[in-house]
Design brief:
single chain; 936 residues; Rossmann fold; Ubiquitin-like (UB roll); 20 helices; 22% helix; 40% strand
């Protein structure tokens, strides 16, 4: 006989599908019809239930109909509710185990009730009465009639040593036959509960006439393995056939999440039951498709937020969650009218395609920002303080008009700070009210300005290390008419620095604000607690794997066991950064062994200081040339520099080897040794020179060093053209130059290339004539200033002038005079365009020159170091010292622009200069130049 838990009658199907609601309702009233409860336990399809129970009317209908049908139903196996009476047990043991007389019936009662039996326990006090009656069959029948029991159970426990024997008798009222005997033995009190459970199962099998489970099969599965399903079910071959266990198995299989429908079929065989679980697997996603996305996101971008993936189980909850994710993605781009739907296309092999259908709608833009309550400042003024802006004609290429919730939230803080910095210290800015109309966004911000407060009395209290009038000179709030919170914050930092520079590293500066409403002013008192002077207990250097500690420490302007100083610490960090050995320099402080001691940790991140670079250039002086250089700026981690550079061009061949020791004998005395060979072909002659130099440098002031360099040069002048000037013809042959050059150089730039602030000023004088046949005095002065502007723009002002005069009985070579043209001087001009002429019209060098350069440098691709430059140059070369007469109108002028790139090979520069006052003698109107960049 086959028993399938899929009732054929309409009434049964109704109760199966609506069991969840019906049972829960009857449970509330503690009266569950057995038929309803039974079918609920073996059914686990709630899909129809969830659909039909959406309306309150349907719920009432279900309750009434289920009650009418369910009250008359009987279980599928034909059993009514069974009543069992359990009598107290007899205990036979040497030790006192009398407590088991009632405990054993109680445990047996619990096990039987779990199997669906109604159990009644008789108390032990009536034992003398029933003990005699159960020894007689007729008395047992009468007792069962009196108690209304379908079955009666009694028994005994015999305990000898660690061994026990549990004997039960079961009397069935319906048959009236002699009691059936059930016996089980065991050892140890810990095994007694298991023995009771086994006897309860035997009793249940007898009471319900249950059979064993012969086999357990699974059908309908395609992807999920049979073993995986069987692992979650409790019903196994050899178990007693139990409807409650089957119900739990159905729930366990459904909880795996792979199935849409599960049924159980039981087939009765002579020796037991065959159980089959019939499953219907959920669909598997074969592909996820996106349609309707036209302008905002491509399909790959949308799929990044979708969690439904190919090969996953089709789950409606996951799909709905993904629809919300897609909508949120569009709303972040202000497409608030977006709608997302989906379709499922079933394919063979239990697979399906999922398609998300998107209607993007129109993009919302901020049409109007409305302020309410502002009187002191116009709407236009307030809008300038906000990152959020209204839509404009250029919104299609910019973010103007886009709504960003984070930006809008920060705008509230910006507006509030603007008011507080303008004296309106009581101003309040409300939360923005955002309203969507069609495809427009309207933002309303309510403002309560209050009254402006002027700056009143400014005083100091607490520990003053300077006179009050001196401290007043250090702050700027006194220069403000109205209270400004930002200026006050800056003043607090300035005062803190003053105290920190004197060693009070933990000084506390707190501005005390006192409002005087009647006068609409604010009195400010800076309360200062200087604390104890703090000393650097230890300075720890870390992160340097190559650079030696002493190379780092000699750049510091702070020392252990000395008072702390914020200004000297900042200067120390700047010195380390100017070395250009490190990618990053971090500073951390912690308290030392005492309250007046501090531990300073400087953590550096090293970068490569060795380089092999090569490049090419084009200019009016050299035409096309190539360069190559091998250098190490931190040789062996000692801070030494070794460089070998070669230049090869159409007019020049040059090789330079140099070595610099920045600290001789650990003193701030630098030394540089350089040797070179240089072959240069001028238009009128060739110059082949070789030589070397030895230079020393020493710091004399902040950012200022004094240099002294001795130079020896042997030049061979040959291939002199007949058209060359007489001054050049006189140099034909070998010429020896022995000179000493002294210079004073001030350099406070934050970096050498593309500096953004600081200055570079220098003055040098060279005296040649220490032997040899070359003799002259040359003076050159140079100044350059860097001014940071808005938007990372930098203005550069540069000027340079030089003068040279000969020495009696010595030669002044033309190549030691002044020429201009090209990058670094007058861009757009060739070398001979600005050179003076001799009586024969040949170009010669000048005795003096002046040069002015003005630049505007701005970032183009900031992340990769590409900057643009616009420039204006002006200058002139004077033939002889008697010609020197500075007139701005006589200066030659050019202008242009270019690109500067801090490339991996080194700084590169390409520029075009256009001559503004072109003359017939000039070689052209302007020209491009490209080289390894120079900088002022």
């Amino acid at each position: 006989m086959r028993q399938t838990f899929r009732p054929q009658k309409i009434s049964y199907i109704f109760i199966l599908n609506f069991s969840s609601f019906v049972v829960s309702t009857f449970y509330r009233f503690k009266t569950v019809p057995s038929g309803v409860k039974y079918i609920f336990e073996i059914g686990y399809s709630n899909l129809v239930v969830r659909h039909l129970l959406k309306t309150y009317t349907m719920k009432i209908l279900c309750l009434i109909l289920a009650a009418v049908l369910g009250l008359s139903l009987i279980p599928a196996n034909g059993q009514q509710q069974v009543n069992v009476v359990i009598l107290p047990f007899e205990i036979f043991a040497q030790k006192d185990l009398s407590y088991l007389q009632s405990d054993l019936p109680g445990a047996l009662k619990t096990s039987l009730e779990q199997a669906g039996v109604r159990v009644l326990l008789l108390d032990a006090e009536s034992e003398p009465q029933w003990r005699q009656r159960v020894s007689n069959l007729e008395e047992i029948k009468k007792l069962s009639q009196q108690t209304g029991a379908d079955y009666m159970v009694w028994g005994s426990l015999t305990w000898i040593g660690q061994q026990f024997s549990l004997d039960l008798k079961l009397f069935e009222s319906a048959t009236g036959k002699a009691p059936a005997l059930f016996t089980s033995e065991g050892s140890g009190v810990e095994n007694l509960p298991t023995t009771v459970e086994k006897l309860a199962q035997s009793l249940g099998s007898k009471i319900f006439k249950r059979k064993q489970v012969l086999t357990v099969d699974v059908t309908g599965n395609q992807r999920i393995e049979v073993d995986a399903i069987k692992r979650v079910v409790k019903t196994q071959p050899g178990n007693i056939y139990n409807l409650k266990s089957l119900s739990e198995d159905l729930k366990a299989i459904y909880a795996m999440g792979y199935f849409d429908d599960i049924q159980v079929e039981a087939e009765e065989l002579p020796d037991g039951n065959k159980v089959t679980f019939k499953v219907k697997e959920k669909l598997t996603l074969r592909s996820v498709l996106i349609s309707g996305n036209k302008w905002v996101f491509d399909s790959d971008e949308i799929k990044e937020v979708v969690t439904a993936k190919r090969g996953s189980i089709l789950n409606v909850n996951v799909i709905q969650n993904d629809m919300s994710r897609i909508e949120d993605l569009y709303k972040e781009k202000n497409y608030h009218n977006v709608s997302v739907d989906y379709k499922i296309f079933e394919r063979k092999d239990n697979q399906a395609d999922l398609e998300f259908i998107i209607e993007e709608g129109a993009k919302f833009r901020i049409e109007k920002i409305i302020f309410e309550g502002n009187k002191a400042f116009s709407d236009k003024k307030l809008k300038k303080q906000m990152a959020t802006s209204e839509t404009s004609l250029l919104s299609w290429i910019s973010e103007a008009g886009d709504l960003d919730e984070d930006n809008l939230e920060q705008d509230v803080a910006r507006l509030k700070a603007f008011y507080h910095n303008s004296g309106y210290i009581l101003a309040q800015v409300g939360e923005p009210q955002v309203e969507f109309k069609e495809s427009d966004i309207f933002i309303t911000i309510k403002i309560d300005e209050g009254q402006p407060f002027k700056v009143g009395k400014v005083t100091f209290a607490g520990d003053l290390i300077l006179a009050e009038e001196d401290l007043l000179k250090k702050i700027k709030i006194t220069q403000e008419e109205f209270y400004n919170r930002e200026v006050l914050r800056t003043d607090v930092l300035a005062l803190t620095d003053i105290y920190s520079n004197e060693g009070y590293a933990f000084a506390d500066v707190a501005p005390m604000i006192k409002r005087i409403p009647e006068d609409q002013r604010v009195d400010i008192t800076f309360s200062i607690e200087k604390g104890k002077p703090v000393y650097y207990e230890e300075i720890i250097i870390s992160g340097n794997t190559k650079t030696r500690d002493k190379v780092i420490r000699r750049q510091l302007r702070i020392y252990e066991q000395e008072l702390t100083s914020s200004s000297r610490l900042k200067r120390s960090i700047a010195n380390l950064q100017r070395l250009d050995y490190f990618e990053d320099v971090k500073v951390d402080t912690s308290k030392g062994s005492a309250a007046d001691k501090m531990v300073l940790k400087i953590d550096v991140t090293e970068k490569s200081t060795g380089a092999f670079s090569f490049g090419a250039g084009y200019g009016n002086v050299e035409s096309v040339f190539g360069t190559a250089q091998v250098s190490e700026r931190n040789l062996f981690g000692r801070g030494q520099t070794l460089s070998l550079q070669g230049i090869l061009g159409g007019k020049t061949q040059k090789i330079i080897l140099s070595f610099t020791e920045p600290y001789i004998y650990d003193m701030p005395l630098s030394g540089t040794v350089k040797v070179y060979n240089w072959l240069y072909s001028y238009d009128d002659y060739d110059k082949d020179s070789s030589g070397g130099s030895l230079g020393l440098g020493y710091p004399v002031f902040d950012y200022t060093r004094l240099y002294a360099t001795y130079l020896y040069d042997l030049s061979d002048i040959r291939n002199v053209d007949n058209a060359a000037s007489d001054s050049i013809k006189d140099l034909k042959g070998k010429n020896v130059k022995s000179s000493i050059d002294t210079s004073l150089k001030y350099d406070s730039r934050n970096r050498g290339f593309l500096a953004t602030r600081g200055a570079l000023n220098s003055f040098s004088s060279e005296f040649a004539g220490l032997g040899g046949d070359i003799g002259f005095m040359k003076y050159i002065a140079e100044t350059g200033w860097y001014f940071p502007l808005v938007w990372d723009f930098v203005a550069v002002a540069h000027a340079k002038a030089g003068y040279v005069t000969d020495i009696k009985k010595k030669k002044l070579p033309d190549y030691e005079k002044f020429y201009m043209g090209g990058i670094g001087s007058m861009r757009g001009f060739e070398r001979d365009d600005l050179a003076p002429k001799d009586d024969d019209g040949a170009s010669i060098g000048g005795d003096a020159f002046v040069q002015f350069n003005f630049e505007l440098v701005f970032p183009l691709l900031k992340d990769v170091g590409v900057h643009g430059v616009l420039f204006f140059d002006a200058g002139r070369i004077y033939k002889e010292r008697d010609d020197i007469e500075f007139k701005p109108a006589d200066l030659r002028r050019s202008a242009g622009g270019g690109i500067r790139w801090l490339s991996p090979m080194g700084p590169l520069d390409i520029e075009y200069g256009y001559i503004l006052d072109q003359k017939e003698s000039d070689h052209g109107a302007g020209q491009f130049e490209f080289s390894m960049a120079s900088s002022w």
